[in-house]
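Shipment paperwork, digital attachment
Item: protein structure file
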Amino acid sequence: MIISKTNSQIAKMHTAGKYLAELLAVLKENVVPGISTLELNKIAEQWLNRKGLYSPFKGYRGYPASICVSVNEQVVHGIPTKREIQLGDVVSIDAGVVFDGYVADAATTVAVGEVSEELQQLLSVAENSLYQGIDKMREGNRLYDITHAIQSYVEPYNYGLVREFCGHGVGRKMHEDPQVPNCGHRPNTGPRLRCGWVLAIEPMVNLGTASVHIESDGWTVVTNDGKPSAHFEHTVAITADGPLILTEFT
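Attachment content:
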């Protein structure tokens, strides 16, 4: 069942989203050569504690950390470890914040120092595809208009769009109905979008093929061909005035 949110509930999620945008900005500043992904998680937890907030990630189905940090060939759900970030890496950070019982969820991918034009384009295309999808979040459109917008933007670049993981509804729970695939559906299909729906849109775009697998830790998703991946995500509300990004980065 897809749960519509009231204006007051969306306002709470917007507050959570503003906190989350601030947290991601802090983490991006700390993505420097030599820092471990475990240290980034520590920075996140200290920041959340100072704000009196908490992450919906920690403990979710046994997940052990407050953020996900995925490096290079890691697509999503990277568990923070002692792995140190190096110049030339691309690092995806996925995080969430709970405020007054409501969740905001967002992700960004950053390049560490100078990277190749090939990687710069990957990040640009992945991020732009997110906004292509968000633009379709208007009452009266259909759910898979979002999917088609993402897929049709990415396909000309011959990148792999991950199928096994997708966007989702957000609210009191981090994952609610509906699922929002990033590929595999025709436009003008799926449920009609309604004001009050809040969705996390999150394309995962691989430099190589779309094929992925989960590593032995049970969480970290990696590309089968070992090529880098990029992940961008926003929590977005459908309003009478169009899509409202609740996790807008500053």
